[in-house]
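Why run this: before we spend reagent on co-expression, it is cheaper to look at a predicted model of the complex and decide which construct boundaries make sense. The entries below are exactly what would go into the expression plan.
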Amino acid sequence: MIKINSLTKRFGDHVAVDNLSFEVQPGEVLGFLGPNGAGKSTTMKMLTGFLTPDGGNASVCGFDIQSQILQAQQQMGYLPEGAPCYGDMRVKRFLEFIAEVRGFSGAEKHKRVALAAEQLELNGVLNQSIETLSKGFKRRVGLAQAILHDPQVLILDEPTDGLDPNQKHQVRNLIQQLASGSNKIVVISTHILEEVSAVCTRAVVIGRGRLLADGTPAELEARSRYHQAVTVDLEHAVDSAPLMALPGVLDVEQQRDGQLLTVVAKPGEVVFPAVGQYAREHNWPVKELSVERGRLDEVFRRLTEGEAA
Amino acid sequence: MKNLGVIFKRELGSYFSTPLAFIFIVIFLVLAAVFTFYLGGFYESGQADLNAFFNFHPWLYLFLVPAVAMRLWAEERKSGTIELLMTLPVSRTDMVLGKFLAAWVFVGIALLLTFPIVITVNYLGNPDNGAIITGYIGSWLLAGGYLAIGSCMSALTKNQVIAFIVSVVACFVFIVSGLPLVLDLFSGWAPQWLVDAIASLSFLIRFDAISKGVLDLRDLLYFISLMAVWLCATAIVIDLKKAD
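The model came back. Tokens follow.
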């Protein structure tokens, strides 16, 4: 498990991470969210031992990240932002190097390299030098080196940034595979919100180095103004003003000249049945009627912009 | 120390995976020959020794060794791989020493490839081969000193050109500190012990003795402690500015 306690990092006058505290339990896939410059990468760099904290402490699997960093690093697999790899090395030789650093040798080493190459579908490029690979392949090489020793804790800094949709899908599947049914911890930093709904069991939002929100993706969605809102798609515009009088309705928003209505519910209220009934009773030309779970991007924006203001 | 060998192997391999090794070795051998035969007057001196060969090594290394050392850390910083390296479970000592030893062995390989000159001198006369071996050891130690300085300068910056220039200047200071050029500046007013201390820091004086076949323990200690000091400085610099 990961414990972070009042972690702080300053760069000159700028406070990149400000008194950040949270814990991650085994089995969790944690989405680490925040706008650019919020301190996500800095936190990850401190956890993995690349940066030294200016205050506070943290531990990974019980090993303090300052006094026992080598033991902590053995428990972790880390994909740094941009997946830097030694460009002049061949993929196979690079993975063997990582395996050797991780303490594997002989048959075990070859088995580990083969398995990681298999999981990331790198078998076609094993003998190419890394600098000749496409961005997607480079990222996969970076992921392969991170999972090679089957770590207890996997820390991935923007693993899907810059990949095409198919590659993103692949990487997400891989993360789910790694996390499912095991007691591992996966921490993913991202600013792509669909990713959080897709793979994470928990989301932590930070802004300006401070914790802004912490919960499951569903809990975060519930904070949205659009949680339990009802979207009504119509053939042509109708008089939507009476909807305001229905119990639990907070607001009605119109788009496409009134052909698309969004009925916003008051917090904690459910308005779908009432809206549906009203539409039926008045013979509205309804094409589609649906309930929203909430909009993560809207929650994210409100959380982080409120912070900036 | 368990990862020292792993780092060493990767680093040494990386020299040979690019044309760098080939170019360095060819230039080193050509320049060594030019210095020995034209500037050193190897034939004209009529002596069956390699003084003409070794005498120019401090100057030859002045430009060639920093060229090898400049990439040690600056390149890792530039390409971002330093983050990968530093987050692997590798101790600082293993990293610094592994990289340094790989570079030192690489220069050693280039130095060993000058063996035809040993054959030549043995063919032409009856040299003291013990002195020649001592000369080679001295030359390798000298290269190690330059490399340790260059390693520290490379750790200071992500720009390889800056690392190169600063290393050349630093090494130059260590060469000239034994020359009258520098010593005369001090001998007028400074106490004798200071002048001696400055002179004793010089590569040239130490190397001169070894290259003539005299392997004094103090000279050996000088080179080894010089390397140790600069490598410790490298480790400290890396710790202080890992992420810059």
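Chain B touches chain A at residues 2-3, 6-7, 9-10, 13-14, 17-18, 79-81, 83-84, 86-91, 242-243 (CB under 8 Å). Residues 128 and 209 of chain B are 15 Å apart (CA to CA). Bring this page to Monday's planning discussion.
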